[in-house]
Amino acid sequence: MRASLLQIAVNPAESPVSRRSRVADLVREQSGADLVVLPELWPVGAFAYQSFAAEAEPLEGPTHEAMGKAARDAGVWLHAGSIVERDPEGALYNTSLVFTPEGERAAVYRKIHRFGFDKGEAVLMGAGDELVTVDLPETTLGLATCYDLRFPELFRGLTDAGARLLAVPAGWPERRRSHWTLLAQARAVENQAYVLACGSAGTHAGVQQAGHSIVVDPWGEVLAEAGPDEEVLTVELDPELVARTREQFPALKDRRLGLAPPRTAR
Questions:
Q1: 55 found inside a domain
Q2: Is 198 a residue of the active site?
Q3: Per the domain annotation, does 238 fall within a domain?
Q4: Catalytic hit among 121, 146, 198, 231
């Protein structure tokens, strides 16, 4: 299974309309891949809070249209990163879209953990409340976004729901890049699953992005890592490695917490 992570540079001098067209062309160039993953909020920039309201779009807005067509033209499963979604009631969400190789929408995930500590995304956007997985031909994909990476219970829930491949589009800042790599490897090891963490490049509202998209296997080994600039990171995955890893080192079978209400000592 071939996966391509498109580490998109978000340049404030490039309009969202122009970037959307450029990214659609980049997706079309990945016609040999099985799965393509884009970063978080690449049409506007993950830290461009002042632009969220102006650039918000309905679920089936211009990004949905462009990415669906690009997925169909390339014949790939496309995790289109995320957009600023405005729902019919006017609320904003950080929403991920996944498309089939036919260009049909396969899944919607609204980011559960909003970043900002009572400012920025945390107050401008609503929180999702559903775990989302997608059945691909050879594996099951679990969806998470950026700050979600810090919450292991979300990933354990995705694993319990059958996920063997975990996609994490992000707009992760350079100043915390060491956490990005560490957490991606930790989520892979503890869930014995592949992690595809796709970051962005460039500067979002003055916040330098980490780049360094990373693919980690179920043993925690880094299979590929991008640099700081815009880059396409392509890697071959073995869907059966997850099953073999869980058979050879069956740590998930020894879980005792989270499976039933804990007993309290008296």
A1: yes
A2: no
A3: yes
A4: 146
